[in-house]
Structure formats: structure tokens, C-alpha cells
Design goal:
It is a single chain. By secondary structure, the protein is mostly beta strands. The protein has one domain: Hotdog Thioesterase (Thiol Ester Dehydrase, Chain A), CATH 3.10.129. Helices cover 14% and strands 37% of the residues. The chain has a 5-stranded antiparallel beta sheet, with helices on one face. The longest helix has 20 residues. It is globular and about 45 Å long.
Length: 140
């Protein structure tokens, strides 16, 4: 067992949607042998875009990484689960919370939170200019 697993089980959030699962490979490592933070950031951006895409009704772009916290290292072969939740919908933009949990391949079902982030996406037109979000969910 890896030293970064906490004592006792952690469960992923029940109020967020599983939007992506991926296993990092050796090519994704940094010089220390852990998974490169930039690779994790790219996966978070992909995962974060899933829910806003439902409401954008067309093109959208990442406009801000409001917060990004690396809590634990990610290792080769960990199974990463990306959970996302829409937290704010404005006239043209949407803010999403993304939490990333790792499971060791040999210890599946034992999760540790490795990353959390908040990102903002904006709906854009064909010229790349902001446009209104056409499908606004109730209660957000």
C-alpha cells in the first residue's frame, strides 16, 4: 500500500457527477516519478467542461482557473475519478467545482482526494465572443 492513502475509507461526493475516469501512464511522469501536475490540470479542464457543455448549446472556452489545489501526489497506475458539479451560472459563464479521487489499482474502492479545482467556462459564438448561456439550470 502506498504511503499516501489515509487510514480508513473515504468515499467520493454523492452530490457530484462522475464525469471522467483515467489511468495515468509512465509517459505522464515528472522528474520525481509522480504524475506531472500539468497532466492532471489538463484532465481537470476536460472533466470540468462536461457539465457546462450541456448548457452552453454550442462553443465554449475555459476563461479562468479560479482555484487549483494539489492535495496528494498521483502515481502511475492510480485510477483517477473526476467528479464535477456546476456551482454558478451567469449570463455568459458557468463555474464548476471538480474533485479528483485516486484509487490504487490493487486497492480499488479505497479513495484518496488528490486534487480539487474551480474553473470558469464561457459560452462563445463563432467569432469567439461571449454569448448568453441558452439553457440555464434551475436553482443555481
Amino acid at each position: 500500500m502506498s504511503a499516501y492513502l489515509p487510514p480508513g475509507p473515504i468515499q467520493p461526493p454523492s452530490d457530484e457527477e462522475l464525469v471522467l475516469k483515467v489511468i495515468p501512464m509512465p509517459a505522464d511522469c515528472n522528474a520525481n516519478g509522480d504524475i506531472f501536475g500539468g497532466w492532471v490540470m489538463a484532465q481537470v479542464d476536460l472533466a470540468g467542461s462536461v457539465i457546462p457543455a450541456r448548457y452552453a448549446g454550442g462553443r465554449m472556452a475555459t476563461v479562468a482557473v479560479n482555484e487549483f489545489i494539489f492535495k496528494q501526489p498521483v502515481r502511475v497506475g492510480d485510477i483517477l475519478s473526476f467528479y464535477s458539479k456546476l456551482t454558478r451560472v451567469g449570463r455568459t459563464s458557468m463555474t464548476v467545482k471538480v474533485e479528483v479521487f485516486a484509487e490504487q489499482f490493487r486497492a480499488q474502492g479505497q479513495f484518496v482526494k488528490v486534487t480539487e479545482a474551480t474553473l470558469t467556462y464561457v459560452a462563445i459564438d463563432e467569432q469567439g465572443k461571449p454569448r448568453e448561456v441558452p439553457h440555464r439550470p434551475a436553482g443555481i
